[in-house]
Amino acid sequence: MDKIVVRGGASLHGxxxxxxxxxxxxxxxxxxxxxxxxxxxxxxxxxxxxALSLNILREMGATVNRIDKTTVEIDCTNVRCGTSKAELVxxxxxxxxxxxxxxxxxGRAYVAYPGGCDFGGRPIDQHIKGFELLxxxxxxxxEHVEIESDHGPCGTSIFFDIVTVGATINVMLAAAMAxxxxxxxxxxxxxxxxxxxNFLNTCGARISGAGTDVIKxxxxxxxxxxxxxIIPDMIEAGTYMIAAAATGGCIHLTNVIPKHxxxxxxxIEETGAVVDEYDDSVVVTGxxxxxxxxxxxxxxxxxxxxxxxxxxxLLCLANGVSYVSEGVYEKRFRYVEELIKxxxxxxxxxxxxxxxxxxxxxxxxxxxxxxxxxxAMIIAALCAEGTTEISQIHLIERGYDxxxxxxxxxxxxxxxxxxxx
Length: 421
Ligand code: UD1
Description:
binds uridine-diphosphate-N-acetylglucosamine; 4-stranded mixed β-sheet; about 425 residues; globular; alpha+beta
């Protein structure tokens, strides 16, 4: 069993290069299924969810070559519909993008029900609504999702009942090669939606409006290969920004798009830290005294739910009582129990956590209950007195590229240790 062991007390100083965005890389990797040609994808993060997704495509007949640590060549010419392995697909959420890609390319799809972090119920009703409006007949149970159609997807108008990243992406994938034009209203506006649209357009798709809540997709007959670089990961960047603020350090984050970070930067500044923006980098300077703040998570451009646990750790160190409300998922406070083991004072009431800041944190044995919760434990451990051991770190490795190496290079006392099972 692997653990991350952190001896707290050091403040972070130095520079960190942010990797490509996991949540942009994944839909783009699955979008390659639409392309009967070679795609070269650059700035791909070296994380487990990416490796797993590349394996899923390999098993389906794709040729996948890693050219270097961050560049991958994918050729899906020989991919066979409905051949993804259930045991791989069930390990991650993003594997459900195969539904949109298979439906778009083959006019049908057959994929195991996806897995992913446990944040309460994660229905796929909006995905199904989209596929049905595009002309598919969808059968779904807790094991598989199947789409059939007579003529493949046909352009349509879709108004999503809620803002959903996953369903917006899945409809974009299915509609890129549909007969006619599709309009998505109440679409998600996340930077990774724009990145997927830019990738597909580079392959010859005709998508406009990505980044607004109305996306227009004019179907094309075929897509061609391209070379495309993934955008930097705003959530990885936000995580290190909070680590700097929490430890009272000063770090320079390179390879970022400051505009994508505004929702995070402004909240960090509210707690007293200073964020200086440059063209493609930011410098975060923490202050000895951290101010309380209230946070509510929302779809982009609101404060991201994927930054909620990290922010909660910062607020554990603040002077006064802060309120953190979760506006996206039903249940995203499972990590609170772990922070309490470290001395935090937090009460959860439904979708709101009330954090009484200023209680000193101490080392403990804690569990990474999910990806972002796991990295929040690392930040708490950096600020705690004594040693913290974090287990289930494979969940952190799903989305963070070399988190131990990056933090060590900025002065953290952190290591990955393998224990016999
Ligand atoms: C993606 C991200 C995840 C992030 C989330 C919100 C990936 C691989 N995952 O997840 O890290 O936390 O966006 O930014 O990119 N919902 C429905 N019905 C649906 C679809 C969604 O009720 O058909 C609900 C979900 O349960 C959730 C909310 O809508 O409460 C938002 O989900 P969505 O935006 O789709 O998130 P994911 O794509 O699953």
